[in-house]
């Protein structure tokens, strides 16, 4: 086990009053230029470049995520935000220190969960000064809209980055949250959290295996070099989890807002993004914390569009239809490629023969690496009448070390200091959960015409 903590590493720009608050220190400014905001009622949506660039608006003709429940295991979600109201069901708290419905922001970055949820299922809000073109898109014309605007968000709150008054360790919060999400009917689980270590506590095996047995799709962020993470860490390294890397506006792997490793499955936008903040505001941010919910939202669209598909078949569709980038085939930078929402929904993919998750299985991995079940080699050794020199009778066979993600091909400088790193004395390593995440608390955009 390695000392460290599961964290959300986030750079913030907050109002002066908040900066002066006792016990809270201002964080470093983002190193990527902030997008200039438009002073119009739909200025927020105008900045959601991925809606058109990636074909989400086109995808809405087939699916909007209706009837699909996405669990957001994060720092809590503000269910009262005007762009989320009605799309966030009562969830739960895994920390022991938050509200029982998961609607309270917790820890060092209480806004993080609301940002994540809005990328998935924000529906906008009404504004008498803003009208949308007839039939242009679902939801309401002003404010933020997520990629699956009719999906449900199930918030399960964690306490990360500061001392948890509830007393539950991060190591225990995560598996509890995963199990609760499954038992609460989640079809998709989003984990915009992670660590700098490829390994995870053995106590997590059963929870992730439980989710896979119950046909739930798991999505996690890969981490960010700008927060000091050069290779993918857990839970993105857990077999069967869709690990999401990040790309810039040109669909090139982001040098700052992504990591790399053999577990990456697909890549999605991770730079110059906007999301809803608690209250009625918005924030500009970057990082795979934001990339993961874009993929979770796409999976929600797929689960509505292909209701008879198993989780394994949905994963097969996602990776098969991804647009290959970098080295041919799967690679440590882009995985199988950059997401293609329209193809993921409509392309003819043979999934009839798919019976197992193409990204692996926690159960099978654990049977080898945790020694929970004797390996075939061990069984044969026990059945051999005369023990071989290598394996004397009663002698255990050394467990195989977990696979390590490929090391970076080049050494990249740390571009942004880690912000708000917690110290929980647990093994989980330090991470960049999504973000280089550059968040600016933006006051709600004025809807007055200039």
Automatic annotation (TrEMBL):
Residues of the active site: 74, 112, 289
Signal peptide: 1-20
Pfam families documented for this protein: Peptidase_S8
Keywords: Hydrolase, Membrane, Protease, Serine protease, Signal, Transmembrane, Transmembrane helix
SUPFAM superfamilies in the cross-refs: Subtilisin-like (SSF52743)
Keyword Protease: yes
Residue ranges of every copy of the Peptidase S8/S53 domain listed in the record: 65-337
Transmembrane spans: 415-437
Gene Ontology molecular functions: serine-type endopeptidase activity
UniProt keyword annotation of Signal present: yes
Gene Ontology BP term (one): proteolysis
Compositional bias per record (Basic and acidic residues), positions renumbered to this chain: 373-382
Chain segments carrying region Disordered: 371-397
Entries under InterPro entries matching the protein: Peptidase_S8/S53_dom, Peptidase_S8/S53_dom_sf, Peptidase_S8_Asp-AS, Peptidase_S8_His-AS, Peptidase_S8_Ser-AS, Peptidase_S8_subtilisin-like, Peptidase_S8_subtilisin-rel
Similarity comment: Belongs to the peptidase S8 family.
Protein name: S8 family serine peptidase
Species name: Rothia santali
